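In this section we walk through a basic example: taking a raw amino acid sequence and producing a predicted 3D structure, encoded as discrete structure tokens. The instruction is simple. Fold the sequence below.
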Amino acid sequence: MLSKSAAKAFFLGGTALTSAVFLSLTWDTFQQIPGRTNAAALTDSVKRGKHLWEDNNCMGCHTLFGEGAYYAPELTKVHDRRGPVFIKALLKDPAAMYPGQRQMVNYHFNDQQIDDLVAFFEWCGKVDLNGFPAKPTLGAPAQQAAATTPTPLALKRPEVFSQICVTCHAVGGLGGTVGPALDGVGTKFDAAYLERWLKDPAGVKPGTTMPKLPLDDAQLGELVTFLSSLQTAKEVQ
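The resulting token sequence is shown next.
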């Protein structure tokens, strides 16, 4: 059993040691904050995007960094998950991206505001959160199906295809399942039809759930060329 003086020394020594450990860990934490929070990338555009996020109460529906509501998708890694092309198209006209379905409110952001929000989401995605949020396991793209896979793609997927079209469509077994797979679509339809379809899906097929994508001429041309190259193995031999 410790004497009174020994107990006092033990208490004071332990307090000093734990206080030193606490202070050193606190100092180390503050040293890591700039790197972990991606502080060097806090541009004026990112800051404006953050103000737009707060002023429009986006957390009323979405979650960011684990805080917010769960009515709409979690957005911490949305820039990596969807990409800037998809985000810009959705913010420009949410109803056009999901016609006839539940969609977010159209805040009528101008191009500068949309660019600022995209910059903010990109910054959020690069903050070091020790693996949060975890990569989703449900709804992951299907694995390549060997039996029905067409010949390898002759052309690189355009950015707009990789960020928007794969949300609903698959090629080679990879992508969404909301819309039909696009393997061999270049065999079924010629370039002129594909261009008309992409410009105005509802005009070609009234009642279709395919949205009218906000494509510029360059993106439209890239998509038509790429889709036209998706020939079945029989046709390309």
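Looking at the output, two observations stand out. Residues 153 and 230 are 7 Å apart (CA to CA). Residues 4-36 form the longest helix (33 residues). In the next section we compare this with other chains.
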